[in-house]
Structures
1.
Amino acid sequence: MTTRGNGYTAPVPLTFTLDPAVTPALRAGVLDLWTDVSNARGAVGFVPPVTPEEIRPELVRHLVAMAEGRNRLLVGLDESGTVAATAFFSFNTHRLMKHWVWLYTVMVHPKHQGQGYGRDLLAAAAAEARGFDGITAIRLTCRGGHGLEDFYGSCGYREVGRVPGAIRVAPGDDRDDITMLLTLA
């Protein structure tokens, strides 16, 4: 935290890196983040309670896609160097859709939420995507019932599609699958 002249204590900004070296520490940090976000009821592909062992195969799929050049990782480190935020870019292979990218597994650690780090992560993702050759937009999906579409909307994304009840969190608890789009200027 940094203290401003008016006594307001602002969070120390995260340090964002695109395509960080995939070290054992990074893998463990992303796995810990994903587990903590999932267990805090974050909508990142799992329903609590979940263990790192349950998440690990999905992380490995992301890392393989990175090694194959299909995905790229944007990671945000806090002041101690701990993985605090992530977003994975996924590139389209269809020749008519190569002008936009998917953004997946957008996460901010629960202890950092409410401090503007989610906005910082999305701004960093947009800045990086603007540097990708031929990319003019970012698409992502989010699970209904969390208000995420409002958050993404406040960050410049607009809702472009919704499939009611497409995500079954539990028997009797179906959520909308919402598609959001950010057009890059």
2.
Amino acid sequence: MHRISFFLGLVALLFTQSALGQSRHVDSHEHGKGTLNIAIEGKLILMELEAPGADIVGFEHPAKSVTDRNAIKNAKAVLSKADQIFTLPKSAGCDLERAEVDLLREELSGDDAANHTEFFAMYQFGCADPDKFSEFGLPYFRVFPNAQELSIQLITRQGSARYDVGRNSATVKIGVGG
């Protein structure tokens, strides 16, 4: 009988939330700053990217014009291609198994009303040798010029680590040990 670890169960919950129709809420965010959560369990690498709409398409207001709607459509298409956002080491033998992209919107009311949007992307990779996942590239900053920083959270069986990287970081070196 196969047993799913508690760790993998928690990570899977993060990645299936939107697939089950549960809503995610837009957290308060700072333009220019996104988050990337990475979880590694066995031969599976899961990545979750959250970024303000202003970082990805240059605006957060509801898309009313054809130009705005096209910008969102194009951004979703780019975000769904993981190799345009991250470059994983070839030696790890990772294949993208699943990618999902959503645009989340929160409309606030009142005198200081503002619309906040975030792009939320989830990626699942199957890797032949995840121990070789010791660094990865970030074409993300080149693709999205308004993005300035990523706060990266890494979770493995050995523990967790946090990295803050800026747009001049072409490569992120990590300590994994799968």
